[in-house]
Design a protein that fits this description.
- With about 240 residues, this protein is an alpha+beta fold.
- It contains 6 helices and 12 strands.
- The strands form 2 sheets. It has a 7-stranded mixed beta sheet, sandwiched between helices. The chain has a 5-stranded antiparallel beta sheet with strand order 11-10-9-8-12, with no helix packed on it.
- Strand 8 and strand 9 form a beta hairpin.
- The protein is globular, with a radius of gyration of 17 Å.
- The structure holds biotin.
- The site of biotin has 22 residues, from helix 1, strand 3, strand 6 and strand 7.
Length: about 240
Amino acid sequence: KEIHYFEEVTSTNSIAKEIAASEEEGTLVIAEVQKGGRGRLGREWISPHGGIWMSVILKPGIPLRHASRLTLVAGLAVANVIRNMDLDARIKWPNDVRINGKKVCGILTEAKAEVDKVDYVVLGIGINVNMDLKDIPESFRAGSTTLKAELGRHIKRVSFLQDFLFELEQQYILFKTQPFSHILNDWLALSDTIGREVKVTTPSRIIEGKAVGVTPDGALVIKKADDTKEEIIAGRCIYAR
Ligand code: BTN
């Protein structure tokens, strides 16, 4: 598999999307620094030296509506690898991996589809590894942490990356060969969202209630005060208490 390594890019996801059509599944785009790193919901993703900023090109041949499942697969893989370092990584729906309530990883999944079948999926993964939190502007720093800050020591990024790619491949194989409920159960076991009072903001409205589950397509199920349930496929989730 090819690895495209760059010192500096705008966004590894943007590069991955440009080359995806002609590249094999499993191709990796990785950079030391991103100048135009993108987060979910149009947000900026600050990507200084010391982190892992990468995108993986996948060609799973699934319907577009299942593409968001891969976000859960990637989140599970990141959380598993961090847990193997004896840190209590948890997943906040849909894609934040957190340690002690602070975000250490974000995932941005982008897919291109013809009719309903995906041509490719780009899994963009940003992991705060060794960078200094002071390299992150104050407004982004709140609620973030790094592996180095949590472990109190420098992490070898190359070996972390090897472990992560191995785990991602394992989870991807399970994704392709087993019912999705298996991955969903593993994801649920590591998620700290279910059972919480949440407030989810979408471009059109705000939904408040108790997070009671996740659908097989990765939508969050919220039980509202009037006891009706609602499924939200994308949005910003805040824990109310
Ligand atoms: C989020 O939590 O909002 C998602 C953040 C995703 C960041 C990664 S870093 C590598 C890849 N390239 C980007 O521009 N974004 C993703």
